[in-house]
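PROTEIN DATA CARD
Card holder: Haem-NO-binding
Chain length: 199
Origin: Celeribacter neptunius
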Amino acid sequence: MHGMINRAIQCFMRDTYGVHVWEKVAQNADLGFDNFEAMLSYPDQITLDVLGRAARQLHKPVETFLEDLGTYLVSHPNVEAIRRLLRFGGENFTEFLYSLNDLEGRARLALPDLDMPSLRVEHVEDGTFRLSCSSAMPGFGYAMVGVMRAMADDYGALVFLEHQGWMDSGEEVITINLLETAYAEGRAFELSERIGGDV
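Structure generated from the sequence above:
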């Protein structure tokens, strides 16, 4: 598994629950180190062990832990770059959904060696979409539920999300019911990031 994924799990644990909780998880998973290197690759089993130990440490199902991780990846100030990458997908939540079909290609421009999950969004009927996720990490779809929920809040949309389970092909399926596109005021977003003070 790419180090960025492991590093994201580590940062989520550290930023949300504290350094000591993360260190306990790392110790219980017999990592032999406290920090993942973002640009290295690690055996998939290490990632699975860390996820299992983290969920047990927090007394949560792994699915809930992954959903919380997905929310963190979009909403926490320490990972603003991920939110920016996703917000470039469109001016409203519907445009954002369709942009997920191209996310793998956009992410590869920045990180060519990242094994990016394959995402496919289909319009099923009025206001209903189906998101299919294919990933090397089992349960990635639950993280996408968290991402979708946080992005809906970011855009000010009202959605109902449901993880439908796994298809025979191994893909995870999420149903997205878009109830209202402008339910609340979304978070501010500018295409260009301001650097330094006023010019």
